């Protein structure tokens, strides 16, 4: 695996409260155990390279179902740019960092009259169903769309964005705990990949990078 793709496939175990409750407060990130989410995020910030060098991230090419029961492809139905995160709706760790920042960036851009679609593609389709995703996602943003589908359909999306997931363990109360990709992806209205951002970026910076692509200027 190339040095670049090693970092594209960074994974943060979505553990948080679940692991703490099990007696272990460590988080797995890129094969390194961390004692806290802050420590894991700091490691990611230090090891994440410039996002300009990711030619193997294809983007697009997904055909899934949103939490309203509607088919959704990589092409935005309203012609908007899209911010995409891979995780699961009730994740207690990195998702609870990335999704609020992504949502805040969407609101910042809305104030600048730039409409962006925030999307979560699930890595846990057994729990993230059409019936269950909506309430959890609305907590982060009323316009956030949850996407699920068959294992085959989701695998296409994971491959397009070079996202890996793995089951860490089964928590007796929290259920399955997954390690998964932790980047926020920006794709165009036609589903083409534009760039990716680590979740440690603040909402203002996420909005700034996104705005430059919307306006046709790379960050």
Briefly say what this structure is:
Helices cover 32% and strands 26% of the residues. The protein has one domain: Glutaredoxin.
Structural features:
disordered N terminus, alpha+beta, 7 helices, Glutaredoxin
Number of helices: 7
Largest sheet: 7 strands, mixed
CATH class: Alpha Beta
CATH superfamily: Glutaredoxin
Looking at the overall shape, the CATH architecture is 3-Layer(aba) Sandwich
Structural class: alpha+beta
Number of strands: 12
Query: Strand-and-helix sequence, N→C?
Result: HEHEEHEEEHEHEHEEEEH
Helix fraction by DSSP (H/I, runs of at least 4): 25-40%
Please give the order of strands in the largest beta sheet.
5-4-8-7-6-11-12
Please tell me what the overall shape is.
globular
Commentary on this structure:
There is one protein chain. Helices cover 32% and strands 26% of the residues. The protein is built from 7 helices and 12 strands. The strands form 3 sheets. The protein has a 7-stranded mixed sheet with strand order 5-4-8-7-6-11-12. Strands 1-10-9 form a 3-stranded antiparallel sheet. The radius of gyration is 16 Å and the shape is globular.
């Amino acid at each position: 695996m190339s040095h670049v793709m090693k970092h594209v496939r960074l994974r943060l175990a979505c553990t948080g409260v679940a692991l703490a409750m099990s007696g272990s407060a460590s988080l797995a990130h890129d094969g390194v155990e961390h004692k806290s989410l802050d420590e894991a995020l700091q490691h990611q910030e230090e090891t994440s390279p410039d996002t300009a060098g990711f030619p193997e991230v294809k983007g697009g090419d997904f055909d899934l179902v949103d939490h309203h029961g509607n088919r959704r492809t990589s092409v935005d139905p309203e012609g908007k740019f899209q911010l995409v995160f891979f995780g699961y709706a009730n994740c207690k760790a990195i998702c609870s960092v990335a999704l609020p920042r992504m949502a805040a960036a969407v609101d910042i851009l809305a104030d600048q009259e730039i409409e962006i679609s925030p999307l979560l593609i699930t890595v846990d389709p057994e729990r993230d169903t059409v019936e269950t995703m909506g309430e959890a996602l609305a907590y982060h943003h009323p316009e956030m769309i949850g996407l699920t589908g068959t294992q085959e359909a989701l695998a296409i999306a994971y491959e397009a964005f070079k996202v890996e997931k793995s089951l860490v363990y089964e928590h007796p109360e929290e259920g399955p705990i997954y390690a998964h990709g932790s980047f926020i992806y920006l794709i165009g209205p036609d589903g083409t990949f534009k760039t990716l951002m680590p979740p440690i970026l603040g909402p203002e910076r996420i909005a700034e990078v996104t705005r430059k692509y919307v306006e046709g200027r790379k960050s």
